[in-house]
Design a protein that fits this description.
The protein has helices spanning 18-26, 54-57, 76-89, 103-111, 121-134, 136-146, 148-151, 159-172, 176-180, 200-216, 219-229, 243-250, 256-279, 292-308, and strands at residues 5-11, 31-35, 62-63, 95-100, 189-196, 284-287. With 310 residues, the protein is an alpha/beta fold. Helix 5 (121-134) packs antiparallel against helix 8 (159-172), helix 10 packs across helix 13 and helix 11 crosses helix 12 (243-250).
């Protein structure tokens, strides 16, 4: 039986230091970094979404960062397809390293996706319009009647996920969770999950400092340029934390102090949700942000054990 390809996953809350850990690995192994953060895919927001800098990208190849226009969206299925393409395209000696914090994307890749049929365009468009006109909570209330189990995994304000679940139900007559519970084929990859563990209270001041550095790096000008290109507040790229608050600032709805306050509050809330998500997973090996050498050694031993099993 052919051995599955090794893939390392570096996960954790926003601002925990995942990029630094990936670069630590890249200094010891031939690494190809592949993004799995749903916000870092947008081309107009490299600073606001904390995408790796040009200097960081020069250390090793980086994939799936900043490739999507603000007007477009990508779901878990689309991400899985792109990620698999990048993993399979990596050279034989390269170690694919997935880096990010979007738990649904990673789970979809590591655990597999249910074979949900394609959704007809008319149903998708109708649900999308309802989401814009009625908002996420209205869709959530309807979803609670047909798929209460999925409601435990989403949030009333998560318009995109609620709309996706409803369009699947309308198109197939089956709840989203029914599809998720179907058997999926085994993965062709062997995953090692490394988590960057930071206490939320420890992370909170670091997140505020991170926002200040983003502002110094030109986040406001970046938002202004993005607004000139896409002056549509409902465009998918604007829904990200930081993008949303800065959009309100450049439109004159709030001042800079309120912008920073909301940005920091919403970022902390997102980090809390990420920590809750990853706590549910049992196969994560946790490291402190400064334990780069320890994480590298762990990967080295894991790869050696795999080679010994051949």
């Amino acid at each position: 039986m052919e051995q599955r390809r090794p893939v390392v996953c570096i996960l954790g809350p926003t601002g925990a230091g995942k990029t630094a850990t990936s670069l630590g690995l890249a200094r010891e192994f031939p690494v190809r970094v592949i993004n799995f953060d749903s916000r870092q895919v947008y081309s107009d927001f490299p600073v606001i979404t904390a995408q790796p800098s040009p200097e960081e990208r020069a250390v090793c190849p980086h994939e799936l960062y900043g490739f999507l226009p603000t007007t477009e969206t990508i779901n878990a299925a689309g991400f899985v397809e792109l990620a698999k393409e990048r993993i399979d395209a990596a050279q034989e000696k390269e170690l694919p390293v997935l880096v990010g914090g979007t738990g649904m994307y990673l789970q979809s890749l590591t655990s597999g996706l249910a074979p949900i049929p394609d959704i007809p365009d008319d149903i998708r468009e109708r649900i999308r319009k309802r989401a814009e006109e009625e908002g996420g909570p209205a869709l959530y209330a309807e979803l609670a009647k047909v798929d209460p189990e999925y409601c435990e995994r989403t949030h009333p304000n998560n318009r995109q996920r609620n709309a996706r679940a409803l369009e699947v139900y309308e198109a197939t007559g089956k709840p989203f969770t029914w599809w998720h519970n179907r058997e999926v084929p085994p993965s062709p990859y062997d995953f090692l999950k490394l988590g960057i563990k930071v206490d939320l209270d420890q992370l909170t001041p670091l997140l505020k400092l991170r926002i200040e550095k983003m502002l110094e790096a030109g986040a406001i000008d970046e938002a202004r340029r993005a607004w000139e290109l896409c002056p549509d507040e409902n465009a998918p790229g604007w829904t990200g934390i930081g993008c949303m608050e800065l959009m309100r600032f450049i439109k004159g709805e709030i001042n800079i102090e309120e912008t920073v306050r909301l940005w920091a509050r919403n970022t902390r809330a997102y980090a809390k949700r990420q920590l809750t998500w990853f706590k549910r997973e049992q196969d994560i090996h946790w490291f402190a942000p400064e334990e780069h050498d320890k994480a590298v050694k762990f990967v080295e031993l894991w790869l050696a054990d795999r080679d010994g099993e051949r």
